[in-house]
Each structure stands twice: as structure tokens, then as C-alpha cells.
Amino acid sequence: MSSNAFGKLFTVTTFGESHGPAIGCVIDGCPPGLAIAAEDFRTDLDRRATGRSRHTSQRHEADDVEILSGTFEGHTTGTPIALLIRNTDSRSKDYSEILQTFRPGHADYTYWQKYGIRDPRGGGRSSARETTMRVAAAVVARKWLAEHFGIRIRGHLAAIGELEPRTFDWAAVEQNPFFWPDASMVAELEEFMTALRKSGDSVGARVNVVAEGVPPGWGEPVYAKLDADLAAAMMSINAVKGVEIGDGFAVVAQHGSGHRDEMTPQGFLSNHAGGILGGISSGQAVTASVAFKPTSSILIPGRSVNLAGEPMEVRTRGRHDPCVGIRATPIVEAMMALVLMDHALRHRAQCGDVGEVAPRIPGAVE
Amino acid sequence: MSSNAFGKLFTVTTFGESHGPAIGCVIDGCPPGLAIAAEDFRTDLDRRATGRSRHTSQRHEADDVEILSGTFEGHTTGTPIALLIRNTDSRSKDYSEILQTFRPGHADYTYWQKYGIRDPRGGGRSSARETTMRVAAAVVARKWLAEHFGIRIRGHLAAIGELEPRTFDWAAVEQNPFFWPDASMVAELEEFMTALRKSGDSVGARVNVVAEGVPPGWGEPVYAKLDADLAAAMMSINAVKGVEIGDGFAVVAQHGSGHRDEMTPQGFLSNHAGGILGGISSGQAVTASVAFKPTSSILIPGRSVNLAGEPMEVRTRGRHDPCVGIRATPIVEAMMALVLMDHALRHRAQCGDVGEVAPRIPGAVE
Amino acid sequence: MSSNAFGKLFTVTTFGESHGPAIGCVIDGCPPGLAIAAEDFRTDLDRRATGRSRHTSQRHEADDVEILSGTFEGHTTGTPIALLIRNTDSRSKDYSEILQTFRPGHADYTYWQKYGIRDPRGGGRSSARETTMRVAAAVVARKWLAEHFGIRIRGHLAAIGELEPRTFDWAAVEQNPFFWPDASMVAELEEFMTALRKSGDSVGARVNVVAEGVPPGWGEPVYAKLDADLAAAMMSINAVKGVEIGDGFAVVAQHGSGHRDEMTPQGFLSNHAGGILGGISSGQAVTASVAFKPTSSILIPGRSVNLAGEPMEVRTRGRHDPCVGIRATPIVEAMMALVLMDHALRHRAQCGDVGEVAPRIPGAVE
Amino acid sequence: MSSNAFGKLFTVTTFGESHGPAIGCVIDGCPPGLAIAAEDFRTDLDRRATGRSRHTSQRHEADDVEILSGTFEGHTTGTPIALLIRNTDSRSKDYSEILQTFRPGHADYTYWQKYGIRDPRGGGRSSARETTMRVAAAVVARKWLAEHFGIRIRGHLAAIGELEPRTFDWAAVEQNPFFWPDASMVAELEEFMTALRKSGDSVGARVNVVAEGVPPGWGEPVYAKLDADLAAAMMSINAVKGVEIGDGFAVVAQHGSGHRDEMTPQGFLSNHAGGILGGISSGQAVTASVAFKPTSSILIPGRSVNLAGEPMEVRTRGRHDPCVGIRATPIVEAMMALVLMDHALRHRAQCGDVGEVAPRIPGAVE
Hints:
By secondary structure, chain A is an alpha+beta fold.
């Protein structure tokens, strides 16, 4: 299977470099009959768009999606859906200097060692620009999951550096450029980011995601567990260094008597497991948390080597995104959607006639 | 691809239930000419063995591996290598009672919802018994990686509950039943575990793993990144709830100026990235950390429901393993080995003639 | 994906050499709840058994299947089903001589060139012994297909050398050791085979297979067309050199007006297409025809080279099977079953809620 | 894996409908450093082009390939190569009538039964237009195979209806619009085709293909045999009903003493096997033969049913291609190239360090 493809049955293959002619994807395995139009992609692509806030990279792309195939009269036909976005704001002159340089913390050095060649324009294939197509493909998945199962997937920023929300309100998340669930802290965040930008440095972030309405039974033991596929999905996003399901690393200090989610006919009493037991969804909300590293493209000079192996100093000129995690929320949601969509089809393939065999226990009220 | 198979080119398919006739695996894609004998499996299977210490489950299995295919005169032939271990200590009577019960924190409920049927004997397929075959298959991978690249993979326990090592010494790890790197704390751990067992409760743990000698260039962007595959590999292990690469969740609070691993001709100056940049190995040590939840099989009664949806109380009788993380170190090492082995072959497939194209920068001295 | 595995969702991984300790397979993705017992394998394995007739290889194997996993109380659980058959009649001394020789028409030379090593005992992995596990795995598939869709898969020998049936009767097929549909010719075949055996030579054969009851809609364009997967399945059988769907090579001389299967509300008027249009089943009987080469293990000496590249003469001693096609009918049926089973699940995955959207046209009466 | 993708390591995913905005493909896994430019696609796309001769469909497409990704300064970088061709000559009005009709011998009925929806414009996804991207992707494969192994892949038409070449000359093949190896028959073919076109009917064809220079050792037993993958590749082409390797169905009547290709140090004495033994290349020329059915789009009226299941008469209006096999030669060559390219990488992955372990025997002089 292509390493630029994600999913076993709902398969998304992406292509394109940051400053090449275009980026795009091919979605294969989509069920037929789903209504999809170019306008459907607008909201999620805007949420992810790099030009959304002055605290993210200053690249401006229209990001207009063209549907090249796979639909007829506005509905999916079951054949591959190809989506294309032209790169319009390339400005590749900004990156001419880095051709001879391995920027520390970037993929420059590793791509070179692997392939013996690399596209230096804006990070090439290793640019976060690729994630645009994840978000686009997930639009299709989210729509199908919502229509067929009422599944809702929502994410939010859970930390920027050492700042964490003091209160939590889903309604606040979409009303500030940080996807931050505590409206009272937005001014503080603005100030923090402005200072950070001025310092020329960057900072890490944490994004949480919740999928509600996932029925019990999705996920395939033992190597395609729902949480294993989620872990791969999240870790494949640029800059991610950690993934947690449910309580995540907090379980290290927990006791079994506290961790295990007890069940009653009225519902689970807690959700430490994050909605997954033995790799299979329990019907509780599926929860994950993802750590984003501070971007390495900063204005502060750093030591590096050039193609000839000589020591040199690197300092990012072009754009500078002081916290890549800020715009990562839609991407994390997208990967959750792609994993769930794939497993919805996988479950139906093997167990499509199992039906509801036992009383379903409601999820814990959070 | 089978969901009970791991790896794209070095593919390990496992089968078997905890208390069925046998467990086993089929390794496909192994390069020919590797010397392998039944004795090679002894050490690693003993390290993982459940009867190793009085602090782990009291099951005693000989775990003698039979090589059913794939070798001739002691060398791999390139054909599938099948390994078989008979289950000799089943004692399935211990588990007869749970047939009607969904144990909280276990896969009982989710398997039932998915399949409408489950093997209740000892956890069936969801038992950690399955991980035996991961360790067995990894013996082959580790041997090949060591012979061809000098790669060494080592793990250790990094936390039990709130206890963490105060000093670090690799030499200590294999000299105590906890894979603990601080010899001075072993008595303390013994005491802690004894108290825990008496309390009838369980506790979580953290396992760290390091692979040294991995050449730069392994890993395939963008969905088969080396870290994405590692995340899936680790999360597929029973009881795992979190995976970190390099600094993991600590990156959330870091700044880019501190995180990025600067390079000099003499070597990297740090290894916050855990040896992976852009999904491709950098030549530095590949590091990961894994969180294991406290087992849910404890002596303390808990609320649950039965097959009929009626409320009931569950209390584990049979064996009780107060910290599954203790014996997880060899499993974590095994998954690291399987991922690296698969990517060694994948890299050779696409980039086998790229060769050494640029100066290689040594890894940071830890 | 393992190259010793077949099927995307109903995945069968086989292992084992002709004269190793055992052969076996792992079936992954089987729907839960199917009743399966060791006795279910008896009939089909006997039909394929090498010792069935004096006209096939004189090897006698009990071929008792042991179910190692994947069932509980006689029903599939959705977890991997491992099947094992011990090799009891190895007599590897017969093959000691060929270690230094590349037999013409065999895989000896190519395995050696590929792997640099080969298991010379009875053909090792390239032996037709491997096909036993295809037949065993297909028992599970055939049972499920029959129970869920009423699908019936039948094959017969359609030619031995230049002999072809003069009449056709399905009832005759299972009543002679040749799977021959013309009872009046059995004595003639016996005579032919006896003369052939005496001559020390071998002959080719053709096997036809028909699957009735396949619903319309199975098969996935464009590279996983039902006929493309059938072609791969059949060509993967030892000694196969040609595969036809429907009219096969006869279409070269046909005209469109004669070939296209016209449709009426009462049914298709013919079935030249073999039940597949655009890679998708039409609801007509799915038909295929397969060519088996004459085995190269004959008593007549032939020119070859040895490991050192020196010229030599080869003459098969041990067993001699003058027409491998005779026992191939159950294997061809098995591969048809495995392909259909896989596509049944694949179709359900993507199109499980499409339902019956248009009038179904009955198949042509043959 | 996507069913619109071909190849395990050199993976080609195609998309697009006959009369949608565009067709395209994504090539993943291509080794880095190969020189590729838009001009490279011209020759092979022209050879396949539908407007090449008055005996093929009268559609005129510029078929200009745009390279959207995967190259930098004219060389492949190891990242996905996306190719795009806009559909410029759609004229979808020609097809408006067939929306309510299931044309006999076409995929109309089966797509409808599978998906409950279909794109009626020019056959939609089931159109032979899709094969354009196979030819385009194969340009990359052929170039790599030629540069690295000197492999040459050539095909020719071997029969149109009952007409077969009386002499054979490779030089003639590219000098007539039929890819016909007997220059003396071209006038006869022209006449035959003209008469056929006037009759409103169509006819089948046979295409042969030969790959020279394939080294021994390619192909993976047992389900990814080189011939099994070739069979799937060829059968996945529109209108193909049969595939042969080497002598194909002629083996049915052969004896082992004649079929087995004897070996001497000076070379094989014949090539009945078509260069593949046990699923692995022998170093001889790899040969295959493919049967194309007569197209069902003919001017002669035929019986069919409409969406409501009512009887009706169908008569193709728009374009009419009396022998689809004529332009199939480049497509058959392309599929040979894609299979070989994939196996070149697969072989290197598993056996990259086996080297030349035994004397290589030259192929038979044809």
C-alpha cells in the first residue's frame, strides 16, 4: 500500500508539495449516494487556513477545492473522488537560500539522507500544507458519519506552552482564533502570542479531540485496534510527538480500582478508557489528546551544517508560525474522522449481520 | 490486509487465544540466509514469561517454540516462518464464571457488541498471551537488524505508579525482575508491590525503549512515518493508553529554540526529537515511551452488568497481575524491532541505490 | 501485505513446505457465528487428496486438520482461525539427490536465483502440497457463501491432453476419479492414463469452474475487478499457465453482435461474459477455465545444469504424477470460493446499504 | 488498499471518468533521482491515443500530461508523482439517451446493481479512458526498468477476429496503425476493418507482449507470483477475457517431455514457460498473451431492459470502435511494465543482498 495513502477501505491518497503546482487527494472506497459539493469543503478548510489569524503563518491561499471525479449530479458514485487545490501563493523566492542548508528540527537532513534529493521550496512534501488534503478528505467522512450514525467530532486547543484553560465551554471554541475553550483567556493568549512572536521563538501545544455517537463494536483486534489506528493517524500529523487515548499517561499513576470504568444498566460511571476497550469502541465518547512540538522555523539563529557537512548558522527568514498547534485542531478532528470512517466500513464488512446482540450501555455524562 | 497482521514487508500474522490449543504466528518477507534455531527464542520469551516473578501473573507456560516452516538446515529460506507454542497451563475452570459477565475495564463488553460471541476463557484473543508471539517474531527481526546494521534495542521500566528511578544504569535493568534501571530501589519496589497485591488493587506503569544504530533515512512519509508506525505498534499492545516519541508531551511546554536539535559536524547537540524528523530516522537513537494502564483484573469488587443487562458485582478470582507494565518491557522492545525491520526492507525497496549521499552526523551523546 | 496471504478482507495466509513438519494457514476476517468443526474439512480434503487414485502421486497423508484458534464451542468468533496439518508421509530420502540439481520446468533454478537457498525436500514451498490449505480455507468460505447466499461452486475436468468430454453431466463428475463429466469415457481415460504412466511422460489438462447464485454487484473496479482477482487466484495455483473468464480466448474470433449478452425482463439470453461485466458480477453464473501444464517430474531423462553450472541429465525417481490437473478441480473451486468470499465482504463494506435498487434479471439457462 | 490502485510498492492510483473534468493518477513509491519531464509521456500516449486511426473511436483528446507533484528540477524526489490530463473533448450530449438504459455487454447494469447510481456519460469510470493513466504511469516504470536493467517491453497485435499474422517482424509493428507484425497484411486489415465498420459490428483481438532483460528472481510465491500479478494486471484491462503466460492454453495438449524447458550451460533450449517458473522469473523473456472481446457498442440493435425493468431495444449512436484490441497494445505493455517495476522493488526489499549466487543461464534464442 502506498505510504502516502491512509485507510484500508476508505482510502485517502494525498500528493503535492508546498510550493509545487498543486496539492490534492484521491478518496477511494466512499459509499455511493452521498451528497457532496465544492461548497462543503469551505468551512473546514477555512478553519484550518493558514491566513486565519495573525498568529499563524502569513501565507494566503484561496484553497478552492475542485472535485475532479467520483460524483454525478452532486452525489458520490462509489468511484474515486479526486480533489485538487492549486497553489497560488507560492513565493518560492523566500526559500531559495535554504537549498544548501539542513535546518535543525526540520526534515531537510532526513529527506536528504533518505532520497539523496529534496524539494527545498517551503518544506516540499514535508510541509504542513499536505494536511490541507486531510481536512478536505475528512469533510466527506464527517458528512457520512453524521448522516449514518449521528457522530459528532469536536476538537479544541488544550494547552499553549504552559497555559491551560481554566474553564471549559465548547461554545467558546469556535469563537476565537485559538480554538480555546475558555473565552476569558483569549486576551491573555493574544498577549502571550504577541510576545512570543516578538521574541522570535515558538512554543508547543496540546490538542484534544472527542468523537460522540460512535457505536460500540468498531475497531479490529489486534493490530488494527481503533486506538492503534488513531495513534498512527495522529502521529502522522506534522510536528506531533505524543498521542494519548482516554486518560493517556495519567494512567501510569492510577490504580485499577479508579481507572476501570464501572458499568451499570443506566450507563458507564466514568470514561478513563476514552471509549475504547481491547481496541474496540465501547459506545462511550472516543477521546484523544495530541502533543505538538514548537516549530523549528524561528528567527533565533541556530547551529547547523550544510550539504558539504560544514558548520553554519541558520535563521528562518520567510514566514514564521510561532505555534503550529493553533491551527492543528481541524487536522486532529480530520484524522479522527478518517479513522472512524474506515472502521465503520471495516466493521460492516466483517460483522454487518451481527446486529444489536446485547443491551447497550449509555456513555458516562461528562 | 489481515488486522491480525503487522508490517507491510516483514509481516507477522499472529493467532491463538489465551486458553485455546495453541498460539502462533507466521512471519512473511524475512530475508533468506538468516541463521535461526528454536533456542534463539528462549531468552526473550523467558524475559517476557508470565511466571518470571511473584509480582506477575502466576501462569506457568513452558513456551517452547516449534519452528514449523521457513527454514532449511537452520537458515531462513525466504518462505513463511511459522512458529507455534502449545498452551499447556490452561486451567480454564478459573474463568467459567465470567461467561455471563462483562468485566469493567476489559474487552468483554466490546467483543460481545462487535462479534455477538466471545471466547471467555482467560480473555480469549484479547489476552496479553498474544504478545508472546510478538516477542517471538521480534527475535528474528532483532537478529537480522543486529547482524546487518548493528542495531541494539533496549527497554526499561521508567515508572510504576508514582515511583520513578532516581538513578539510571542500563546494567541494572536485566538484573531485577522489574527491568528497573536503579538497583538501589529494587527492595522498595518489592515492598510496594507486596503491599499493592495485598490491597487487591493494581497500578499503571511506564516503559521506555531506545534503539541505537538505526541509520538515517528509514521511515516513509507521510502516513507511514517511522513514528506513526511506532505509535500504532505501541498502542496495539494490550493496556497501552499513550505513546511518546522523543520528548513526547513535554514538547507542549517547550520553546523551539530549546527543542530543535542543533547540528554540528561533530554531531547533534541534543535528541529531543527521539531520532525522527519528518517521519524519517535521523541517525540519532530512536526513543519512545509508553503508558500502561493498571490492569482491571483486581480483587476489589466493582459494579458491572451481565449479558441480560442486569446490574451485578464483579470480583476477579483466578490470577491477578497487579502491574502488567512490569513484564511489558520485552514487548515494547519487540514492537520497536518489528517496526524497524519492516522499514529497513521498505527503505531498501525504494531507495536501495541512493547510497550515502551526504555527510552523516553522529548522534548526541546522551 | 504478505505475499503468502490471499484476500483483502477474508485473508488466508498459508505456510509450510512439502516435507517440513507441517503445513497450515491462518484465516483472518471471517464473520463470527459460523459453525465450523474439524469434520467439515474432510470431504474437500479427500477430494483433493494425493492418494485418491492410482493416477495421481502416491503420497499418503491423513490430512487431519486441527483447528488451533478462532472458534468457541464450534462457532467462529471473528478472530483468526488457524488450521494445521502435520506432514506424516515425508519420505524425504526420495529427494536427497536433487539438492545439487536444477530440474527443468521446476522452480529449483528460480528459487535459487531469488533466495540463494532452497529447501530441496519435495519441492519445499513450491510443492503443490501448499494447495491443501487453500482447499481447507475455502471450506470455511464455501460454507458461509452457501448459508448466506445459496452460492454453489462446482468444477470439473474439461480436457486431459487432447481428450475432451463428448457429453456433459454434473452428476458424473463426482463419480469418477477424474472429475470427468462424461461417464462413458472413464474407461478410455483409465486406459489413456495407464499408457501415459508407462511412457514415463505427463500431460496437461483443463479445469472449468462455475459459481451459481452470485448476486449482482460483487467486484471492485478498476484493479480489483472480480475477474482480475479470479485471474490472479487461478494463476497462483501451481502449474497454471492460462485463465479464461466466460468465453475466454474464443472472444478473439467473435463479433460484438454475438458476444454481448442481450437482456430481457425474463432473463439474459446468453452468458458469454461469464457473469462479469466491467469487473462486477451480473447475477449470471460466474464461469472460468484454467489450463494446467504437464508436470515436469517425469521418468524421461532431460538436460539440465547443476549448482556449479555444469551440464547434467535429470530423471525423476520418487513419485510421478502424470497429470497434475486431475486433482486440481477442488483447488480451482477453492480459489473461486476465496475470491467470492472476499468480495462478498468488500461489497458489504462499501455498498452495504445500497440494497436492491433495480429489477434483477435472471441468468441465462445454460 | 484502494481498489483503484495497482501495485504494492510502486503504487499507481488512478481516478477520473470518461466525461468528467479530468483523469489522473498518483504514483507512489517511485525511486528518487529518475529524470522525468512532461515530454516523456508524449510517445506512449500518442501510441494509445483514441484518434490515432480511423479504425478506432473518433474521440480527439490532446492528452497533455501535467506533472503536479513529485519532481524537483526534472527529477523524481521519492514523493508521490501526480499526473493530470484534462478532458477536453467530452461531447457528453452524445450519451444523454443511455441514462435510462442498460446497454447489453456493458457495465451499465452491474454498476447500477452495485452502487445504485452511475455516471452515464461515456461509460463513466468503466470507460477505457481510464487506461490512459496506466500508460502514463508505465512511462515512469519503463524508463526506470530500462535504465537499471536494460529491460525492453514490446507488444503487438496477434489476431483480429480470425486473422493472424503470417510472418513476424518486430520492425513492422510500429509502422502500421494495427501494431501488426506482418507488413504484407496491412492492406488486408484495412479492408477487413472497413467492411466491419460498415456492417455496424465489432470483433475481438489478441495482443501478445514480451519483456526482455528481466533478471532471474523476480516474483513472490505463492499468491504474489509474477504470473499471478500479471494475470490480474491484464484481466483488469477493459474488455479482457483471457490471459496466458508462455504457451498458455496450448499446454493442455502438451506432454511434459516437450513442455519443460531444458537447460544447458549455454542457455535454455526453449521457452514454453514464458520466463516464469514457480512464480519467479527465470531470466528468459517474460511472455503473455491477452484476449480482448469485441466491443458491445455497435450499431446493430440489441435487446435490453431499462431502469424500470421494461424490455427495449438498444443501438449505439455516438462513437463506435469496431475493435478495441487495436489500441490495446500500449496498455498491455503498460501493465507488464507496472508489474515488473513493482516486483523489482519487492525483490530488492527482501533479497537485496542475495546477489548473484549461481551461474545464470541465458534465455533461449527465439
